[in-house]
Amino acid sequence: MDEIIRAVTKDGFIKISAISGRNIVERARQFHNLSPVASAALGRTLCATSILGDLLKEEDATVTVRINGGGPIGSVIAVSDSSGNVRGYVQNPHIDLPLKANGKLDVGSAVGTMGTLTVSRDLGLKEPYIGSTALVSGEIAEDFTYYFVESEQVGAACGLGVLVDTDLSIRCAAGFIVALLPGAPNSLIDQIESNIAQMGPVTEVLKDGSADDLVRLVLAGLEPEVLSRRQVDYRCYCSRDRILRALESIGKEALDELAESGENAEVNCQFCNKIYTFTPDEIRAISTASE
After folding, report:
1. What are phi and psi of 272, to 5 degrees?
2. Is 132 exposed, middle or buried (0-12, 13-18, 19+ CB in 10 A)?
């Protein structure tokens, strides 16, 4: 099972959330038959969104992240509940691009930079809280860092990584979000930046380590204290009843057209690819009920 760790420095000036998310990303890869670059793009987004969900205080709240940079992968969508359980998809899961000169997956070119990263928090109020910023690299982590600074006015840094194995399975996936708390001296920014630079890619840490190692390395010399641990999973909440309610919302005219076609209607869940089938008689019954 994957895990999110929350920690704070002993002086109370810096907080961090770190996730080990290999199983989450591997399940996403299997559900959507993702290409390596799509696994990396969606996997990074899932890890960051899971952390954001875990930070929600309201029990029934959700957070949705939408990234659309105009690249060939299309939109990248991830949704987390308040326990950090996450689900997601990309518009074009089979996109394939040449590796970058350094041999790394070219996530930035797949995602693009002509668009936005949008975070929507549904806290059970009349309207969700929505923040949005322009993409700066399409590499996801840098875009989240820019979002925190520009949209939420929080001094933060984000690191994300997905390592795809030779058989296309996910070898490791991880991430962290570290933020300065009110009153923190600016000198701590330099120390955090130095620690992150010395640490290197998060996937190198997780090859033989854990989320604990991410916390230890990012907050090296700052005496981190673990506050909580939570197991997280890729979790889709689709059901036949939920799909039925969605069908009701399309209106009687559209439902009658479906029924008159004489063919079964198939509805595919975007998050887990499960297919729900409704016969013409079932469609008529839904139409009648929606009157």
Report:
1. -130, 0
2. middle
How high is the pLDDT of residue 290? Answer: 66
- Tokens 């969605």 sit at which residue? 246
Measured between alpha carbons, how far is 255 from 231 in angstroms, rounded to an integer? Answer: 41
149 and 253 in a single domain? The answer is no
Torsion angle of C-alpha atoms 70, 71, 75, 76, degrees rounded to 10? -130
Task: Residue 91: give the domain boundaries.
Answer: 2-232
Written as one letter, the residue type at 268 is N
Q: What is the dihedral of CA 234, 18, 158, 60, to 10 degrees?
A: 50
Distance between CA 16 and CA 14 in Å, rounded?
7
Q: What is the dihedral of CA 65, 110, 42, 49, to 10 degrees?
A: -30
* Mutual angle of helices 22-32 and 36-54, in 10-degree steps: 130
**pLDDT per residue over 185-209, tens digit each?**
888 888 999 999 999 899 889 888 8
| 98 band by pLDDT with thresholds 50, 70 and 90 | very high
Same domain, 151 and 268: no
